[in-house]
């Protein structure tokens, strides 16, 4: 079992077939950006319950362990008071930093597309008229998530 401290940057919840999937984008005290997918049916449910109520800037202590396939499972989560990371994220041009920014960008785009859907026609998007607006909204979300103030 390993303990990590995280600061929430973004939480996106999507319906997938018969369950919900949450993508949690977070920052460690070292400034590393990472993300974790959590399904609403996975035990223990206290992890889902705690994170579904979380907001950007909230801090948590996570108890995690590697499963048989080598992936980290979050076993317990506890909300913390105060900030986990002091200052701005560590700047860098490593592959991992770029990868995390792409994950954030993808999540922001998915949320912008979700907001562009018409309530009466949930599967239709007027692609030709709205693509510019969708991309602008996604960029706005991305800037907000990656801002340096907490």
- Give the averaged pLDDT, no decimals: 78
Tally of individual helices: 3
How many strand units?
Answer: 5
Instruction: Please give the radius of gyration in angstroms.
Output: 16 Å
Shape: globular
Strand fraction band?
Answer: 25-35%
CATH class of the largest domain: Mainly Beta
Taking pLDDT < 50 over at least 5 consecutive residues as the criterion, the unreliable ranges are: 83-93
CATH architecture verdict of the largest domain = Beta Barrel
Strand order in space, largest sheet: 3-2-1-4-5
* Number of discrete domains: 2
| Class of secondary structure makeup | alpha+beta
N-to-C SSE series?
A: EEEHEEHH
The separation of the N and C termini measures 29 Å
- Oligomeric assembly: single chain
Helix content: 25-40%
Biggest sheet layout? 5 strands, antiparallel
Here the CATH topology of the largest domain equals OB fold (Dihydrolipoamide Acetyltransferase, E2P)
The CATH superfamily name of the largest domain is Nucleic acid-binding proteins
TL;DR?
The chain is an alpha+beta fold. It is built from three helices and five strands, in the order βββαββαα.
Describe this structure in words.
- With 150 residues, this protein is an alpha+beta fold.
- The protein folds into two domains: 79 residues, Nucleic acid-binding proteins (OB fold (Dihydrolipoamide Acetyltransferase, E2P)), CATH 2.40.50; 51 residues, no CATH class.
- The protein is built from three helices and five strands.
- It has a five-stranded antiparallel beta sheet with strand order 3-2-1-4-5, with helices on both faces.
- Strand 1 and strand 2 form a beta hairpin.
- The longest helix has 22 residues.
- It is globular and about 45 Å long.
- About 7% of the residues have low confidence.
């Amino acid at each position: 079992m390993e303990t990590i401290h995280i600061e929430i940057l973004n939480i996106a919840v999507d319906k997938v077939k018969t369950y919900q999937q949450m993508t949690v984008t977070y920052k460690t005290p070292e400034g590393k950006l990472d993300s974790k997918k959590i399904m609403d049916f996975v035990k223990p449910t206290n992890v889902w319950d705690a994170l579904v109520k979380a907001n950007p800037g909230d801090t948590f202590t996570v108890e995690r362990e590697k499963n048989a396939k080598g992936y980290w499972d979050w076993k317990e989560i506890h909300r913390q008071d105060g900030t986990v990371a002091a200052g701005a994220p560590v700047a860098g041009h490593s592959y991992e930093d770029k990868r995390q920014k792409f994950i954030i960008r993808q999540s922001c785009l998915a949320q912008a597309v979700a907001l562009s859907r018409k309530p009466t026609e949930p599967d239709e998007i007027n692609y030709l008229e709205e693509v510019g607006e969708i991309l602008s909204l996604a960029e706005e979300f991305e800037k907000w998530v990656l801002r340096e103030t907490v």
